[in-house]
Amino acid sequence: MKITGFETIPIRGRAMVLKMFTDEGLVGFGEPMNYAHWRPVAQAVEDMGEYLIGRDPLQIEDHWQAMFRSSYSRSMPVLVGALSGIEMAMWDVFGKSVGLPVWKLLGGSVRRRVRVYTASGGSTPQECAENAKAAVERGFSALKMGGSQGPVRFVDTPKAIDEMVARVAAVREAVGDEVDIGVDLHRRFSPTMATIFVKELEPLRPMFAEEPCHPENNEPLLALSRSTTVPIATGERHLTRWSFREVIEREMCAILQPDIRHSGGIMELKKIATMAEIHNMAIAPHNAAGPLGVAASVHVMATIPNLLICEGGHNRGQGLFNEPLTLKDGFIELPTGPGLGVDMEDDAIEAFRDDTFQLRGMFWHEDDGSFADF
Ligand SMILES: [Mg+2]
Predict the structure, then answer these.
(1) How confident is the model at residue 363 (pLDDT cuts 50, 70, 90)?
(2) Is 186 noted as a catalytic residue in this protein?
(3) Which of 80, 220, 226, 358 lies 20 to 30 angstroms, CA to CA, from 45?
(4) What distance in Å separates the CA atoms of residue 82 and residue 99, rounded to the nearest whole number?
(5) What is the phi/psi pair of residue 236, to 5°?
(6) Which residue out of 37, 186, 214, 279 is catalytically annotated?
(7) What is the pLDDT of residues 32-81, one digit of tens each?
(8) CA distances from 254 to 24, 194, 249, 257, 273 (A)
(9) What pLDDT digit, counting tens, does each position of 299-344 carry?
(10) What residues have a C-beta under 5 A from ligand 1, the ion?
(11) Same CATH fold, 103-339 and 3-99?
(12) pTM of the complete model beyond 0.85
């Protein structure tokens, strides 16, 4: 079998569908990270595709090594994003060529189903509480909310801190103690503010506090982890096992959140999970874009022992996949179809196409007009 071509379609939700074609008529699907800059990612897929045309799609590791190691700066996010989507598509073709789901090809499952959480937001405490209750009514036993509504100062006022804590407290009050709550700090907090805020969250016993610091500087994670009983999570912006290495080897946090769309793909996610396993760290894959990434993450999570929970439970391919992923009691059932098990028709993909471009993550401190971290 040989690879004959690629197509990328940007879709709603800052996501992307990658189609890989073969001379035997099998089509592989994958999801490269879109980054809200889909054009350079689509271009990167086309460029890497030139190398792959005419090659065997089942030589997955060999192609990964060649595509990753041949670039001048091998961890360039757009390139690793494109590579991740291509790698997923090769696994999809592999599974389809032998009639088996990807999780079976990875060594089989260690669990019957994969626990998932959904996003739940709101600006006021009351709104947060109502949305969280609605998420539980939709069948979720875990949810994640933002820690702040807007910019956070390097050191913020007691009033601002109390308002942030009140939103989480309202959710805990609304859903009770049997539902898990993740709080995403969105790397908006200075290490000092993260330490103060997370300490205040301790009585509310969240499942984790996510991404307190920029991935360019891991060191504050360690001090923060040692300052609190709240499990600290990070990883949605770390790429490949090399960028996770320091966090894992120095056991800087409790939970890693690699995103399969740009951390290197299916096998790379499994490798990162294995590195984490020997340091007693858990995996909670980040999935804030398309449903293909959710599906691919579910396949890997079926096979690793150190899963905590998987993001994206609401994003199961409804209206896009011929058969959406199945949610039951807060868990996604393991897909049983060949490959990723989530085929799509062209007209369904077209209905989701969204090639508009909008700069995101733009916000400013109100008081002095300086730019604030998104
Ligand atoms: Mg996040």
Answers:
(1) confident
(2) yes
(3) 358
(4) 26
(5) -65, -15
(6) 186
(7) 998 889 999 999 999 999 999 999 999 999 999 999 999 888 889 999 99
(8) 45, 16, 12, 10, 12
(9) 999 999 999 999 999 999 999 999 999 999 999 999 999 999 999 9
(10) 184
(11) no
(12) yes
Find the distance separating the first CA and the last CA of the chain, reported in whole Å: 45
Q: Where are the domains of the chain?
A: 3-99, 103-339
Residue 253 alpha carbon to ligand 1 centre in Å: 15
Q: How far apart are CA 218 and CA 214, in angstroms?
A: 7
**Beta bridge partner(s), residue 72:** none
Which residues neighbour 5 within 8 Å (Cβ) at sequence distance 6 or greater? Answer: 20, 21, 49, 53
Active-site residue flag, 37: no
**Cα 250 to middle of ligand 1, angstroms:** 22
Say which CATH architecture domain 3-99 belongs to.
2-Layer Sandwich (3.30)
Interval between CA 119 and ligand 1 midpoint (Å): 10
Q: Domain 103-339: state its class.
A: alpha beta
Q: In angstroms, what is the span from residue 234 Cα to ligand 1's centroid?
A: 8
Ligand 1 center from residue 286 Cα (angstroms):
7
Q: Which residue has the tokens 């999801």?
A: 31
Active-site annotation holder among 63, 238, 286, 314: 286
In sequence order, what E strands does the chain have?
3-11, 15-22, 27-30, 113-119, 142-146, 180-184, 208-210, 232-234, 255-256, 282-283, 310-311, 327-328, 331-333, 363-364, 371-372
Q: Measuring CA to CA, which residue among 223, 231, 236, 224 is closest to residue 186?
A: 236
Ligand 1 center to residue 195 CA distance, Å? Answer: 17
* 210 Cα: distance to centroid of ligand 1 (angstroms): 6
